[in-house]
Amino acid sequence: MSDIMIIGIAGGTGSGKTTLVKNLIARFGENITVLSHDNYYKAHDDLTYEERSLLNYDHPDAFDTDLMIEHLKLLKQGRSIHCPVYDYTVHNRSSEVTLIVPTRVILVEGILIFENRELCDQMDIKIFVDADADVRLCRRIKRDVKKRGRTIESVIAQYLDTVKPMHEQFVEPSKKNANIVVPEGGKNLVALDMIMGRIQRHIDGGTA
Length: 208
Known about the structure:
Layout (H helix, E strand, L loop, with lengths): L4 E7 L5 H12 L3 E5 L12 H5 L11 H12 L4 E7 L4 E9 L4 E5 L7 H4 L4 E6 L2 H15 L4 H20 L8 E4 L5 H15 L5
C-alpha cells in the first residue's frame, strides 16, 4: 500500500485552483509535488500555429490523460517520471520535460481531471473549486493576456466558442465526482484550513 496521498483539485477556468495549490505549496513545501493536467496536452507538431490555435483545448480528447494515469501509477510506486511541458505561447508541447520525484503528497490539478473515471480512481481526495462564471471569465482574461501573450479579443472568442460550452458539457457535471466542493478556492480560508489539516495528518504518519 502506497503511503503517497494523491489529491485532485479540479474546477472551471479561473475558479481559484491555482490559488489553492499555491497556498498548499507555501505551507508544505517539499512534501508536495504538483502535476498539472495542462502539461499533458497532446503534441501537435504536424500542425501550423494557426491550425493549433483553432483546436478545442477544453475537450477531454485534447489531453493525453492515459500518460498522466501511467505517471501517477509510477509515482505511487516511488518512481520518478519525466513530465511533459506545455508552451501556451505556441499552442504546443515543448521539447523539454520536467523530472518529478515522488513526495508524500501529490496534487493533480486541471479543469477536466474528474471527467475521467480511471484518473479519478488514482485519487484519494477529490476537491472541486467552484466560482461564479463572471468571476472566472474576468480571471481568465487577466491571466491569458498577462501571462500567455493573448489579446483580449482572442481570449473572449475562445471562451465563447469552446471554454463555456465545454465547461457546461464536461467540467460542471464532473463536480459530482468530488468529495469536497470549495467555493472561491484558495480564498476560502475555512476550507483551506480543513484541507491543510488533512494533509498534515498524512505527512505526520496518518493514512490516506
